[in-house]
Each structure stands twice: as structure tokens, then as C-alpha cells.
Amino acid sequence: xxxxxxxxxxxxxxxxxxxxxxxxxxxxxxxxxxxxxxxxxxxxxxxxxxxxxxxxxxxxxxxxxxxxxxxxxxxxxxxxxxxxxxxxxxxxxxxxxxxxxxxxxxxxxxxxxxxxxxxxxxxxxxxxxxxxxxxxxxxxxxxxxxxxxxxxxxxxxxxxxxxxxxxxxxxxxxxxxxxxxxxxxxxxxxxxxxxxxxxxxxxxxxxxxxxxxxxxxxxxxxxxxxxxxxxxxxxxxxxxxxxxxxxxxxxxxxxxxxxxxxxxxxxxx
Length: 269
Description:
Elements: H1 2-22, H2 27-30, H3 49-58, H4 60-91, H5 97-106, H6 112-126, H7 143-153, H8 158-166, H9 171-182, H10 184-200, H11 203-208, H12 217-223, H13 233-253, H14 255-264
Helix pairs in contact: 1-13, 3-13, 4-7, 4-10, 7-10, 8-9, 10-13, 10-14
């Protein structure tokens, strides 16, 4: 079993290792008919300048701010909305409870491309096309996030909520002081999912953003493959490494909570 797990982990991490090592090679090395894993020479002879070249050519100093702003706002607001909705579906009973939840889950059946047709029309009505708001508003809540938080909040014992209501707590106060502390691992896991999805989103920004000043990092990296730029493969790999580095850091910082959140999801109290 461990051998299977290690083999699966290696198959997933090997492309990332290949990208990082290729970013430190010279152009002839990266185009060699007999590719090598490690760059020639020692670490002091590796082509660290490829990162400075990728940063300069892609204009990352401008686009990093756009990506950070969009990913941060989407993560904070979306997690809050999804948690509140998950709490309502898990612990509250109101007219149309089942029908509303079923309708919410039904939106997950829509293909990705079909959903963006409606999102584009909606952003057009609001005047958000070619603005950063178009990258934020359609993702302020998600059916997956609501379902994930509902399953996590189901594990909170109802007796605790009833005790809070006896003490005079409102539903929101019970959510804030009882539910949130107990589902923090699930909140952290959902935050990681949301941040990574927003940070790596390419298809939607490609459709809705036209101005270069509003580009996010995936669009900036994509420019390196256009006819306007002719960087070497190592420079492109360096740009890809710069793009994925924040998501790796976020995951490493919240890994323990992420694992706990995935383990607790689905356990009912």
C-alpha cells in the first residue's frame, strides 16, 4: 500500500520537479535530444537569471498585484458566504429548505463553459467586463463550497446550538461562537481550494479581460507563448514556477488544517 502511495505521489510531483529544474538550464540543454534531469554544473552555475528574465518579460511586477487582490477577495468573501449558507442548510429549517438545497446542488451539473455564458452576460449587465470585478463577483459563492461546509457543519452537535439558544444566542452568534471554532480545519481546507482555483484560473480571465493592465498571472504567462515574445523554454519554465509558487506556499502553511478538514468532512454529530 505504501509503495502504491509513494508511486502515485511521485507521478504527481515529478512534473513540478521537471519544471523547476528545467527553469535552471540553458536553452541548448533544454532542447537537447537526450534530456537530462539536472542542469549542468553545480548550483552556482545554474541559470538563476532565467527568473529575472521571466519576471521582466512577463511584467510580473504589475500582474502579481492583480492576482493577489482577486484571489484574496474571492477567498475571504467566498469562504464566509459558503460557511453561512452551509450552516443554514445543515442546522436551520425553513420553508423550501430541501428544494433550495437541491437547486443549489443542481448547479454543479452545469458544464463549466455553460456556466460562463451566463456569468459573462451577467457581468455585461453590471458593466464589469474588462474589469477586475468580473474576476471576483461570479465566484463569491459556489455550490461545491456550500455543500462542503454543510457536510462539515453537520458534525457539530445540535445540543451545543440548543444550549447557546437557551443562553440567548441568535443564530448568527451561535454560528460565530460555536460553529466556526469547531469547523476551522474545514474552513482552512476550503480556503486553500478557493485560493488555488482563483489564482490558477485561466479560462474565465481569458474571456472577460481584454486590457493588459487587468491581466492576472496566468494570462501574463500565456503571453510568453505568443508570437510577440520568443523566450527560451527555460524562461517559460521559470515563469511557470513563479506562477505556482504562491499556491505551494499556501498549501504548506495550511497543510495540517487541510488534512484535518478533509478528514472531518462528512462526519455527522
